[in-house]
Amino acid sequence: MDTDVATPIELLxxxxxWESLHASNLGRLALSVANEPSIYPVSFMAAGRRLxxxxxxxxxxxxxxxxxxxxxxxxxVGAEDAWSVVVKGTARALDKQSEIDLAAELSLRSDFPALKxxxxxxxxxxxxxxxxxxxxxxxRT
Length: 141
Fold this sequence. Notes:
Elements lengths: L8 E3 L2 H10 L2 E8 L2 E12 L2 E6 L3 H8 L2 E9 L3 E13 L3 H8 L13 E16 L8
Antiparallel strand pairs: 1-7, 2-3, 2-5, 3-4, 4-7, 5-6, 6-7
């Protein structure tokens, strides 16, 4: 086995992860209820060190009331590399009018043609990211 081969994976700093989160507006929310995983695409925005998205009453919101522990992921692919940022945290629907009013002042918009009046925030507990070099698989020895 050749141990001189450079790893094609680079761990991103937390600052790099937040920079990517602030520059993105579409991600995937992963959550679980009754041991059944679900993943939903959501338009979001990073506001400081938290994530915000809007939703409407339905499965996603119902699941968050049962189990608030979530994972959230954004990623991208370029010509020579790909990257991924994963946020693990706790989600909650904003319920105080003052919080809702502040969230409504942000430039949070939905890329999906549906009315979404419920604001949800994710408070991160862990933020990690990786950048991957793209290319052919190394020869196996």
